[in-house]
Design goal:
The complex is a heterodimer of chains A (513) and B (395). With 513 residues, chain A is of the alpha/beta class. Chain A is built from 17 helices and 24 strands. In chain A, a hairpin with a 2-residue loop joins strand 7 (110-111) and strand 8. Chain A is globular and about 70 Å long. By secondary structure, chain B is mainly alpha-helical. Helices cover 77% and strands 0% of the residues of chain B. The longest helix of chain B has 30 residues, at 365-394. Classes of the chains: A alpha/beta (513), B mainly alpha (395). Chains A and B meet through helix 10, helix 11, strand 20 and helix 13 of A and helix 11 and helix 12 of B.
Chain lengths: 513, 395
């Protein structure tokens, strides 16, 4: 047996129109903790899906050797049989079943078709002891916090005789105590000979537990660093993550910044289910007329949560803080109130939260401001058609007419419909959450131009984006958000990707600095 | 793209609507032949309209509820409850008939508020709330009637269910003049509205309906209305309840297409999250929707009671299922967001004609149930099949 447990060679995975992975190679040593890091959308999760058989053998190019054998996994079951178990960021537990039932779900301990409950619970409690969970195996998963649920997932992985454990952003949903606990557990498994691959954004965690780190950028492996051999600093990793050229993908724009439009002070939001956890922690920010403000943050930093809680408390619980509009304090506790005060929010998930995909362009465009088109509760159909058609033309929405159903449009055109909806509502402050996600380069440029135009009209624009180059390309000022806190407020002139990434990956213990 | 292929593409897009119409016509022709012409005999057409009126009224309310992604299982019991209360008000409390009608409609609104409160503001799924309503209102019916029947009702009240508009010809003319006037005016109004609508859509380059198809549809629907006019005029004239239904159909079609409230109903059913994030007060819309359903159930209850001239503790049993079936046969989506008032009415007519035709043929109720069940299944299966094919085509 060699010391290499996993060797993925020249993996290339193509989706229609996109090369998600290109010649990616990954070598993991037995008994090590191997971290994978990269920006959102760099291809980390795709690589893990290739490894775990979510994308079956044949749907990608390249070879996977696990324990020196060439593997062709058809599905997750076959990779699990080999000893590779992946724990996804979104936990896949059935909330109303007990811990023991969840651990052995699909893998029940039974005799002649009947579950042997005594043995199930006994085995479960042994596994729970290994992950350091004291709860009784018959406890319902719904009664556990997220941290403990994660441990149940890991216990489930152990029940499958895991040799290689893959953890996708394991601490993203955890509080600090649970995170530290989990990292200790990973170290502990390492002593028992279990190899782990950990996808993480949090550089301090990587520094704490990882033996090696592989950096992926734009679907390619950039480098693999040995955390012991060289003295690897966080800056060194960041450089690998962001080091890419900024070409001319952004329209020229000279801002004309005016008076303050919106100010948020000391904004704190708790998780709607796990109300003990703060998702947004004492955030203060301001937006001026004609200004494009960016919010940079990694997955789980609380960007969307911040925006949606400001927009009519549509996310979160126990929200506290103050919102000022042109210096006057306002209440935004319903979406209608937020819209009335001139705040709009275009969602990052347009299919789930942005559009009625069953209905046509016209009715989606008019949806947020029907009162502008109606009298005594009746909509003026002709004017509505004219308005929608105006947006179709000015926004260059590619559809034969405004009666086209939005569900059949491309992502870029759907996004233009969402933008049209909010432009028609005519807000003063427009919050755009991932405005170019899943959109091709040409359409992105068009959307940047529209954003610039809106700023020139004197609106305040907030752009939330995972893509640093995008923020650097269009924003006048950028806030960085890490674990629910604003860690920096950087003007465009002094912003660089490295600089921002440093603040985005800044963990709590560094706040004091 | 050639004109022909674009026309064909348009028609395949309208397959569901065309299918519904063709199904209706095929069923009518089938029964017309097998019943030796009884189906389209003037007296039978008149009866068909009158006897299906309450299901059609319920279907109008139900399609709106289903478009919003809800369901209402209580309508049959509410029909019975309102009928019972109408009986109590008129015969025991000696209320004038018109006051009883108003009171019953208000009662329907209160019933809707009760159910709407639990659904919209308390967050209990409508299936559960209205299942509970189905039981509670049936119980209240029996309490109100003390398990007795109430009969008879005054003639003015009965006219709502089985009366006709006055015969202007004094019974002497071959065709009843008032019905002819109403029929011709209705046809003219329909043709005018269609042509104007098309012109306005063309002005904004929204029209993709091929002209021959538009013409064919217009001629067909006009002929249908005129045929019904002719048949009714050669019997006893226009049933009062037909006027009620006509007003409901036109009124609610307009509400669903052009009112802010109607738009919000579609928006909630299509994507509740998106509607909420667009500032739609989804709770208030759901609440008012159930009030509306309550009022329409009360109206159906009044019509039904008036028609039978009897308030009966067992009245309205299974009406909810007929109304729901009508809505789905009429092309509404189970997940909400899609459906039309006219579709629901055609769906209701298909069920009504099936019932009527099979009864004339002497088919036993057991087979009637069987056949209706299969028709419902076939209609929805056709929808699902269509959707899957459309999806495959866009890939």
């Amino acid at each position: 047996m060699t010391s290499t447990i996993l060797d993925m060679r020249t993996i290339t995975k193509t989706f229609p129109g996109v090369k998600a992975l290109q010649d990616v190679s990954l070598e993991v040593q037995r008994g090590q903790v191997h971290a994978i890091c990269g920006e959102n959308g760099a291809g980390k999760s795709t690589l893990m899906k290739v490894l775990s058989g979510v994308y079956p053998s044949g749907s990608f190019d390249g070879d996977i050797y696990f324990e020196d054998k060439l593997c062709e996994f058809k599905d997750i079951k076959s990779s699990e049989a080999a000893g590779i178990v992946i724990i996804h960021q979104e936990l896949a537990l059935s909330p109303y079943l007990s811990i023991a039932e969840n651990i052995f779900l699909g893998n029940e301990i039974s005799t002649r078709g009947f579950v042997d409950w005594n043995k199930t619970n006994l085995e479960a409690s042994k596994l729970l002891a290994r992950v350091g969970l004291n709860d009784h195996p018959t406890t319902k998963v719904a009664d556990l916090g997220v941290g403990k649920q994660q441990l149940v997932e890991i216990a489930k992985a152990l029940s499958k005789q895991v040799k290689l454990l893959i953890l996708d952003e394991p601490t993203a949903a955890l509080n600090d105590g649970d995170s530290a606990n989990l990292l200790n557990l990973i170290k502990h498994f390492q002593q028992q000979g279990i190899t782990s691959i950990m996808i993480s954004h949090k550089l301090n965690e990587i520094k704490a537990v990882a033996d090696k780190v592989t950096i992926i950028r734009d679907g390619r492996t950039i480098e693999t660093l040995d955390m012991h051999a060289d003295d690897i600093s966080e800056e060194r990793i960041i450089k690998g993550m962001v080091g890419r050229d900024l070409d001319n993908r952004y329209p020229e724009h000279t801002p004309r910044i005016g008076a303050e439009l919106l100010r948020v002070e000391d904004w704190t939001v708790h998780h709607p289910v796990d109300q003990s956890r703060q998702v947004v922690k004492g955030v203060s920010l301001a937006v001026h007329a004609g200004e494009i403000v960016g919010i940079a943050g990694l997955m789980g930093a609380g960007r969307t949560e911040l925006a949606m809680s400001i927009f009519g408390h549509s996310y979160g619980a126990k929200i506290s803080g103050r919102v000022y509009k042109e210096g006057v304090e306002i209440q935004t506790n319903s979406v209608a109130a937020a819209i009335r005060h001139g705040i709009a929010y275009a969602t990052e998930d347009r299919k789930r939260y942005g559009l009625n995909l069953l209905d046509n362009i016209m009715r989606n465009v008019s949806g947020a401001a029907l009162q502008k088109l109606s009298r005594w509760g009746w909509v003026d159909g002709n004017r509505e058609r004219l308005v929608a058609d105006g947006f179709r033309k000015s926004m260059n929405i590619k559809a034969p007419n405004v009666a086209a159903v939005t569900g059949k449009l491309s992502g870029g055109n759907q996004q233009k419909v969402v933008l049209s909806k909010w432009m028609f509502a005519d807000p003063d402050v427009l919050i755009l959450d991932e405005p170019t996600r899943g959109i091709d380069v040409g359409a992105k440029y068009e959307i940047y131009t529209i954003i610039n135009k809106l700023a020139d009209e004197g609106k305040g624009i907030v752009v939330i984006s995972s893509e640093l180059p995008e923020l650097l390309g269009i924003c006048d000022r950028i806030y960085t958000l890490a674990e629910g806190r604003i860690t920096a407020d950087v003007p465009r002139e002094s912003a660089t990707a490295e600089h921002l990434m440093q603040f985005m990956t800044q963990a709590k213990d560094q706040d004091a600095e | 793209m050639t004109a022909l292929s674009s026309a064909l593409q348009y028609l395949t897009g309208q397959l569901r609507q065309i299918g519904l119409f063709i199904a209706l016509i095929v069923i009518i022709i089938f029964f017309q032949i097998t019943t030796n012409g009884i189906t389209l005999a003037p007296i039978n057409v008149s009866n068909l309209i009158v006897q299906n009126s309450y299901i059609l009224i319920l279907a109008v309310g139900m399609v709106m509820v289903i478009i919003a992604g809800h369901i209402d299982l209580s309508v049959g019991s509410v029909v019975a409850f309102v009928g019972a209360m109408a009986g109590v008000m008129i015969t025991q409390w000696h209320m004038p008939w018109w006051l009883a009608i108003i009171a019953c409609l208000i009662l329907g609104a209160v019933v809707g508020m009760w159910q709407g409160f639990w659904i919209a503001y308390f967050g209990i799924p409508s299936f559960i709330v209205t299942l509970a309503g189905m039981l509670t209102f049936r119980g209240l019916t029996q309490i109100a009637l003390q398990n007795q029947q109430i009969s008879p009702f005054p003639d003015e009240f009965r006219a709502l269910g089985s009366g006709f508009l006055p015969d202007l010809g004094g019974g002497a003319s071959l065709l009843e003049p008032l019905t002819v006037i109403i029929g011709v005016l209705a046809t003219a109004a329909m043709v005018y509205a269609d042509i104007r609508g098309r012109a306005s859509r063309r002005k904004h380059f929204l029209e993709d309906e091929p002209f021959p198809w538009f013409l064919l549809k217009l001629v067909f629907t006009s002929a249908l209305v005129l045929l019904i006019t002719y048949l009714l005029a050669s019997y006893r004239g226009t049933p009062i309840v037909l006027i009620v239904m006509g007003v409901l159909m036109v009124g609610y079609s307009a509400v669903m297409a052009n009112s802010v409230w109607g738009r919000h109903i579609y928006a909630i059913g299509g994507n509740a999250h998106a509607a909420e994030l667009s500032g739609v007060n989804t709770r208030r819309v759901s609440f008012t929707l159930f009030i509306n359903m309550g009022v329409l159930s009360a109206l159906a209850g009044l019509v039904f009671t008036a028609q039978l001239n009897l308030a009966n503790p067992k009245a309205g049993d299974g009406f909810e299922l007929d109304a729901i079936a009508a809505v789905f046969i009429g092309g509404a989506a189970v997940t909400g967001g899609i459906g039309t008032v006219v579709g629901a009415i055609i769906g209701g007519l298909i069920i009504g004609i099936l019932n009527n035709g099979m009864s004339i043929l002497g088919v036993g109720t057991e087979y009637q149930q069987l056949i209706k069940g299969l028709v419902l299944l076939a209609a929805v299966a056709f929808d699902v099949f269509n959707k899957r094919r459309a999806k495959a085509a866009t890939k």
